Known about the structure:
The protein has helices at residues 3-13, 18-29, 31-34, 39-45, 50-59, 65-78, 93-112, 116-128, 145-153, 164-172, 193-202, 236-255, and strands at 131-136, 157-162, 178-184, 206-212, 224-228.
Amino acid sequence: MQFFERIFDYKNAVVGNKAYDDVLTVILANLDKVRDSTIYEVAELCYTSPTTIGRMCRQLGYNGYLDFRSDLVYIYDNYASYNYLLPMEGGNTQTVLDRFCGNVEQTMACIRALDPAAIDAIVRLLHEQNEIFFCEFFPNPTAIYSLRTNLALTKKSSSYVSGSAGFAESVGRLTAECLVFFTFPDVEQAGFIWKYVREAHEKGAKVVLLLSGAPRVRPDAADVVIRMPSVGTRMDQIGTTVFWNILSFLYRKKWIDRNA
């Protein structure tokens, strides 16, 4: 579970508890300040006590405030303005439209340049393996519904997880009859994924890596590697969404429609 998921789930859980709800509201509105603040400064910002801040961080699943802030720093620095669609989002409406379209065009150019042989290899692996796992760093489960539906139509089992705990549980279930996808964004916090890539390979599972930006480590353990451009915002999900739909279309065309 990622930083923002923890925040949102916890905020939903403490509805009616004004003290914690107000603290979370202030933190979300001042991520740039909290990023560089001590627990005492955050407590002052939120008009509460350091004890309350520490207790809240532990209830969020962190070891304490420093652990919480470390997670916030990674997200804030590597996915600058996380809730923005574009880096440096600003200017008039036409400027935003131009930047948006430019990033979409960059992503589409990358998809056009993908190796058809690599895509065909993935479609073949989807057919050959009995159980399919999708492990994403930033959650976007609805983008895979079409592909998972087509897998179900051909009696394939599929699972979707996001976050370190989900990765660990899924990799623990892998066998040589499994295929696992790892989406790997170009953020430092995603480094933990390499551990699970290696474990998946050691278990004999087939591995597909979907990388955003330039990987920091040579992905020797992967059977297929797909690279996408990265602009460091939610725009990155456009490329992966299109990719999942391409796989869904090709899988259905080859393994469902031809047998209808």
